[in-house]
């Protein structure tokens, strides 16, 4: 039997602040082992990596590189295919910038979708302006699902890349990326998967998927802020030019020219976010320790319980209009209550220690599709409980009485 109380003991912020934390799509809370590991680095072996040959520097480098190994095992790839960045956003920007210098030509096409987080829209828009490429969007239906049948129509001989989210950060929809990747491969098109939301809930094997790039952020995966992952196939990384220039990413430097190191180091200029990277390694090990089918089923049950409570609230609209027991749905629920501004609801819940989001959630194209300007969002994680949902539900009913 899944012991939720024992798991919650690993997360000090939940106990100390008496929080009902329902904003996990934004960032997850951190277990004691991650906090302890970061503190231990600064107290006991704070040193730069890949530079010093004294004891604490060698220990720091070993711990840093161990995270690369843990990430490679998580995704089922080689360690030299894992690049450390600041987060999902920087990972996508790295691919966009480097491909622009090595592959993309004016008139070429990149396909994304209307479901994307802004971090998977803006880099391509900037690239479209700079490089004069054409940016196309897979539309979403009123049910919130991608209209995959439109993909074949969008693809031409000029299409070079499809960059797509695995799980929507607003709707929780899980996209059929296997089908999208298959279509792309049949047309000799590269693929990038934004796994920022899915990495913490779904088993991801990049060898089975056969995607060319995959990105995620550590802070949505029990890890620290300031560290992200870019997986890329090694043969592609070899051909791509550096994103940033500086220390450590070089092979040789002269007054006339410089040459670059091999991947992944070619893409890791300067002193990295050492403590967050080491912390991410512990987060991955912790996740592997707790994650199993029983835990996954617990979260699915909790999500359905939340939806069952929400739909009884008068004048509530949940987005999108899909069957929520569908296996293609993650633990993220967007909603709006008629005549209640999302910001008012979130603020008043916050006064009770209940944390949810309000706003456009960096998904303005989705909101435009549904003719709304802001929504509330709740997002669950493995440490949430039915008792928290009951309190959240009761608090909403009390607040609605005040606001309407």
Please tell me how large the radius of gyration is.
22 Å
Helix and strand run: HHEHHEHEHEHEHEHEEHEEHHEEHEEHEH
CATH class of the largest domain: Alpha Beta
What is the general shape? Answer: globular
CATH topology of the largest domain: the name is Aspartate Aminotransferase, domain 2
The CATH homologous superfamily of the largest domain is called Type I PLP-dependent aspartate aminotransferase-like (Major domain)
Structural class category = alpha/beta
Measure the end-to-end span. 42 Å
Q: Assess the beta-strand content as a share of residues.
A: 15-25%
Helical fraction equals: 25-40%
Tally of contiguous helical segments? 15
Oligomer: single chain
User: From the coordinates shown, what is the CATH architecture of the largest domain?
Assistant: 3-Layer(aba) Sandwich
Rounded mean pLDDT is 93
List keywords for this structure.
404 residues; alpha/beta; Aspartate Aminotransferase, domain 1; Aspartate Aminotransferase, domain 2; 7-stranded mixed β-sheet; 4-stranded antiparallel β-sheet
Can you describe what's shown?
- With 404 residues, the chain is α/β, with parallel strands linked by helices.
- The protein folds into 2 domains: 4-22 and 292-403, Aspartate Aminotransferase, domain 1 (Alpha-Beta Complex); 34-288, Aspartate Aminotransferase, domain 2, CATH 3.40.640.10.
- Helix content is 40%, strand content 16%.
- The protein has 15 helices and 15 strands.
- It has helices at residues 4-8, 12-16, 32-44, 55-75, 88-102, 122-131, 151-154, 177-186, 206-209, 234-239, 274-290, 293-310, 342-350, 364-369, 386-403; strands at residues 20-21, 82-85, 109-113, 134-138, 159-165, 190-194, 213-217, 228-232, 250-253, 258-260, 316-319, 332-337, 354-355, 357-359, 375-379.
- The strands form 4 sheets. Strands 2-8-7-6-5-3-4 form a 7-stranded mixed β-sheet, with helices on both faces. A 4-stranded antiparallel β-sheet has the order 11-12-15-14, covered by helices on one side. Strands 1-13 form a two-stranded parallel sheet.
- α6 links the parallel β3 and β4 (134-138).
- α3 (32-44) packs antiparallel against α11 (274-290), α5 (88-102) runs parallel beside α6 and α13 packs across α15.
- The longest helix has 21 residues, at 55-75.
- The protein starts with a helix and ends with a helix.
